Amino acid sequence: MKVIQVVKNFGPIGGMEEYVFNLSKGLASQEIAVTVLCERQVAKAPLGIQVVVLGKNRKPHWISHFRFSSSVDRWLKDHPEKNRIIHSHERQKSHHLSTFHTTPFGGDKRKKLLHRVSPRHLLYEYLERRELMGPNTKAIITYSSNHRKSLLKKHPKAEPLLSSPIGPGVSFGKEIERSRNAVETGGGRIGFIGKEWKRKGLDTVAEIWRTLKKERPKLQLAIAGVRAEEITHLFRLREPDVEILGWIDDKLSFYQSIDLLLHPAHKEAFGMVITEAMTVGIPVLCSTECGASELVTESFGTHLPVSTKTDDWVGETSRMLSDFSPKGTFLRSWTQVASEYLETYRKIMEGCQ
């Protein structure tokens, strides 16, 4: 069996890209021939993976999706081969399998008249439908049952193609020493990580931190994944007890430096930071709207609906800082993720014969 992975940027530079990079690596470790079709390669390819760079398309972003799809189609036509699975992570049409990495486009918003006639919105809607119900699509993978429900709510006709969800793995695992010191009375360190900080609820985190600081005057807040200049309206320059780290390469050290991860996202297909924190043994308080929230049992933390009043978020944060310690260990390797995909690939191959 040969597997072609389709992604615009190949390298661990974001949630989806990290998923594709580690899945490809996991497949190659099981002696599966993997070829990656991309616009741009941003990391050295792991052993056993062939990377084909098709070239970057011009912006705007919504048109580049269509142009990348055309580039992929041309390459596939010029390189015909039997017994291969085409696995897309982008808005394509020539794939057998699509992993849907985002929440549905505009799925929870009322469409304004302007959106209904906007070329940008119309093309995004078209690309999304084509990806899910394209001429060759045999299976659609989501991250979680919550993610699956949100997709079905907008695209009920896709139900026959939906396979069992396959959530991401965590790159660090068994070798991690899990130890959490008692949180200092009146202190503690809250962590937030996420580039798309608006959607992931950093404004809520800031409000929780400011409110809770009245009873915990030494409470610190560490923010990663976002540049300081993007959030100057939330935090004053050099505000005491706030550390804005920007993009970080060493996420493990970040998790090990905090006492609690807050992730009150408004909508989140999964939320890899949640399972990463759980793997390190860091308590998690996230929104129920995160796909990964279904994995956050009482042993690892808790979750609240994003609409919950700020006072309740503050109260739960205070409780977890005061007297909560994770019980048990969360582990999910990328080898396990790759094995689950291999099962899906084989079913598709059998159905095509």
Structural description of this entry:
With 353 residues, the chain is of the alpha/beta class. 34% of the residues lie in helices and 16% in strands. The strands form 3 sheets. Strands 5-3-1-6-7-8 form a 6-stranded parallel sheet. Helix 8 links the parallel strand 12 and strand 13. The longest helix has 19 residues. It is globular. The model has no long low-confidence stretch (mean pLDDT 91).
Unreliable stretches, pLDDT < 50, 5 or more residues?
none
| H and E string | EEHEEEHEEHHEHEHEEHEHEEHH
Main beta sheet = 6 strands, parallel
Strand content: 15-25%
- Mean pLDDT, all residues: 91
For the record, give the distance between the C-alpha atoms at the N and C termini, rounded to a whole number. 13 Å
Rounded radius of gyration (Å)? 21 Å
Share of helical residues: 25-40%
Number of strands: 14
Give the helix tally.
10
Short overview:
With 353 residues, the protein is α/β, with parallel strands linked by helices.
How are the SSEs ordered, and which strands pair?
Elements: E1 2-6, E2 9-10, H1 15-29, E3 33-38, E4 40-41, E5 49-53, H2 61-78, E6 84-88, E7 97-99, H3 113-117, H4 119-132, E8 139-141, H5 145-154, E9 189-193, H6 202-212, E10 220-224, E11 242-246, H7 251-256, E12 260-263, H8 272-280, E13 284-287, E14 301-304, H9 310-323, H10 334-352
